[in-house]
Amino acid sequence: MAVEFIGIDPDTDRDHCPTAWADAEAQEILLQGWKPDAETEAQCVGSSPANGPVPDNEAIVRIPARMIPMIREACDAVERAQLR
Fold it and tell me: 32 pairs with which residues across the strands?
């Protein structure tokens, strides 16, 4: 897996660092973010009749809106890899 660092939350305090990476080979985007509180997670899970509980190997994470440019860049990196 060749993971490319895309960016870190520009307002980070270096202890709580939402981050974005792209894995062009696997065609995946990796995000580090804050875990939601139990109420927010329940709202996410309950927002669709198709959703069940979040499996142990998955997570819901919060990403600040200020990171949208980095998320777009990660998407672009993965899409570029598809064109090769």
Answer: 19
